[in-house]
Amino acid sequence: MTDDAVLARRARDALREGRLPLGRPVRVWGGPGGGDLCIVCGTPVSADEIDYELALPPADSGGSATTVHLHQGCFRAWQIELERLDAPLSRESGAGTIRHPHRAAPEGAE
User: Fold this and answer.
1) Which structural domain range is residue 18 located in?
2) CA 27 to CA 58: how far, in whole Å?
3) pLDDT at residue 103, as a whole number
4) What CATH number is associated with residue 80?
5) Tens digit of pLDDT for each residue in 92-102?
6) CA distances from 44 to 6, 10, 36, 84, 87 (A)
7) Residue 88: its pLDDT value, please?
8) Number of domains comprising the chain
9) Which helix (H) or strand (E) segment is 71 a member of?
10) In a domain, 67, yes or no
11) Residue 89 three-state SS
């Protein structure tokens, strides 16, 4: 993986280009990687790494959510860049539960 300054720049680029949201995603899951490419650094998230899977809101009212994957460090870089931009992740802007994609949600969580 690359160093923090490079990840910060890549996270800023992803925010500026609209590949990552300035607010809370629709849903976030965490679990072992499955080889999907990280939206921040462009390298695969391997099985021995934590994969954060984000469901992003549709680009338009008729679209469907888009799913992107991030390494744990890339996810952290995205969060730091949001704080730097003063774009807090408010509970009102979407879902807030982080859970594994292959486990059932806790009762009453959805």
Assistant:
1) 4-88
2) 12
3) 38
4) 3.30.1740
5) 444 443 333 44
6) 17, 15, 5, 26, 27
7) 52
8) 1
9) strand 66-71
10) yes
11) coil
Measured between alpha carbons, how far is 50 from 32 in angstroms, rounded to an integer? 5
Contact 73, 11 (CB under 8 A): no
Using CB atoms within 10 Å of the CB of residue 77, give its burial: 0 to 12 exposed, 13 to 18 middle, 19+ buried.
buried
CB 69 within 8 A of CB 39: yes
What's this model's pTM, rounded to 2 decimal places?
Answer: 0.72
Cα atoms found within 13 Å of the Cα of residue 41, Cβ hemisphere only? 20
Cross-strand pairs, 68: 54
Nearest-angstrom CA–CA distance, 92 and 101: 22
* pLDDT tens digit sequence for 22-72: 888 889 999 999 999 999 999 999 999 999 999 988 777 777 778 999 999
**Tokens 């992740």 belong to residue:** 89
100 assigned to some structural domain: no
Which pLDDT band holds residue 89 (cuts at 50, 70, 90)?
low
**Alpha-helical segments (H) within 1-110:** 4-16, 72-84
